[in-house]
Specification:
single chain; alpha/beta; 6-stranded parallel β-sheet; 15 strands; 16% strand; elongated; binds adenosine-5'-diphosphate; binds magnesium ion
């Protein structure tokens, strides 16, 4: 992969794609700026080389036209509070006003473009739109790992017109995810939970080929518990994926991959703070209750397994961790991962949030910033936004 360390940046104008798709309140206040902070090393590196930087990102889902609710303006102010270099907010992402702003931009200054998705051509990867973005700069740097699974004008299209390089965050993400997928030390374990079962079955399919042990719980686990023949009451699950789940269990047996599912669970009559709940073995879950966490015996078994692992991939909470009384399984798993000497990689916004709530970030080898991008990477797919920095020949 070609990175910003492989190119002379002094005096150049750099078009830098970042993932500033940051959770914000309706009034424009920022809920969590970690994605912005994750891009700062790349931004500062480029500025320190004496380049001008045009920063571009999408924010939310405006429907291909300008929508002030999704303006990047509040982010320009926040970015300015984090860097000493001057930040200028553009009124658009392409066109004469942007060209004018770029022509006035000085080395060491940052121009933040307006939301890329104010144009439908962005997500369509329209070549003409990509060229208009590319014409603003000399070099393209992609640091938006979180958007790397999308082939859009700003992540892929511009690389047809500009030499493309990966930023430092992109480089680190790819390096760490490759390390756990392609060169993992044994025993290798994946812990899978969360809610997006349909999205994640492909992930299990790939991880069965790479891992020694899979722990499956959370909303994901419910489908597997049911596929084992147990009644799961009102639990969230994917009724039309039971056969696929049973097939995956069968494949794992054939390949000597150990799959650990909950043997006991916390089940509640509702997902709410005042719900009545109890602890049940998986073969006697009441019809009127739903699984909301793993039970104490499962916590023991999962914890012991985690402590033997040398490589751990974790995606998805093991229960409805948003409520403290249903968070124990997720927290105990996070603690066991943090205490283990294994190389540990966490993907998924909610799993990362659980670790951050406990203040355990520093004990995790790598917390991925990508949601869908991380999942697709772990599924073994080539991400188009990564591939652009890997083309052997870059265009002049
Ligand atoms: P990530 O963001 O880490 O990829 P997901 O978004 O797939 O994870 O899933 C997170 C959500 O899964 C959380 O909101 C959590 O409450 C929910 N969840 C976990 N276990 C269960 C369960 N047993 N029943 C319902 N929801 C669950
Ligand atoms: Mg999530």
């Amino acid at each position: 992969m070609q990175t910003i360390k492989d190119v002379q940046l002094q005096g150049k104008t750099v078009l830098l794609r970042v993932d500033f798709n940051i959770p914000m309140n309706k009034d424009g206040t920022i809920i969590d700026d970690s994605k912005m902070k994750a891009a700062l090393p790349t931004l500062e590196y480029i500025l320190n080389q004496g380049a001008r930087v045009i920063v571009m990102s999408h924010l939310g889902r405006p429907k291909g036209r300008p929508d002030s609710q999704y303006s990047m303006k509040p982010l320009a102010g926040h970015l300015q509070s984090l860097v000493k270099n001057r930040v200028i907010m553009a009124t658009d992402s392409i066109g004469p006003a942007v060209q004018e702003a770029v022509s006035k931009l000085q080395p060491g200054e940052i121009l933040l473009l307006e939301n890329l998705r104010f144009y439908k051509e962005e997500e369509q990867n329209d070549p003409n739109h990509a060229q208009q973005l590319a014409d603003l700069a000399d070099i393209f740097v992609n640091d938006a790992f979180g958007a790397a699974h999308r082939a859009h004008a700003s992540t892929v299209g511009v690389a047809d017109y500009l030499p493309a390089y990966a930023g430092l965050l992109m480089e680190q993400e790819v390096k760490m995810l490759r390390q756990v997928l392609d060169n993992p030390e044994s025993p290798r374990m994946a812990i899978l939970g969360g809610a997006k079962v349909a999205d994640k079955l492909g992930l299990i399919g790939n991880l069965i080929n790479k891992m020694d042990i899979l722990l499956i719980a959370g909303g994901m686990g419910n489908t597997f518990i049911k596929a084992q023949g147990h009644s799961i009451g009102k639990s969230m699950h994917e009724a039309d994926r039971l056969e696929e789940a049973a097939q995956l269990l069968q494949t794992a047996r054939e390949r000597d991959v150990k799959i650990l599912l909950p043997i006991d669970v916390v089940a509640a009559d509702a997902i709410s703070a005042d719900a009545a709940w109890g602890i049940y073995p998986v073969d006697s879950i009441p019809d009127d209750k739903m699984i909301v966490d793993i039970g104490p015996q499962t916590i023991e078994i999962f914890g012991a397994a985690i402590r033997t692992a040398r490589t751990i991939i974790w995606n998805g909470p093991l229960g409805v961790y948003e409520y403290e009384q249903f968070a124990k399984g997720t927290w105990e798993a996070a603690r066991a991962i943090a205490e283990s000497p294994a190389v540990s990689v966490i993907g998924g916004g909610d799993s990362a949030a659980a670790v951050q709530n406990l203040g355990l970030e520093k004990d995790i080898t790598h917390i991925s910033t990508g949601g869908g991008a991380t999942l697709e990477f772990l599924e073994g797919r080539t991400l188009p936004g990564v591939a652009v920095a890997e083309r052997a020949e870059v265009l002049p």
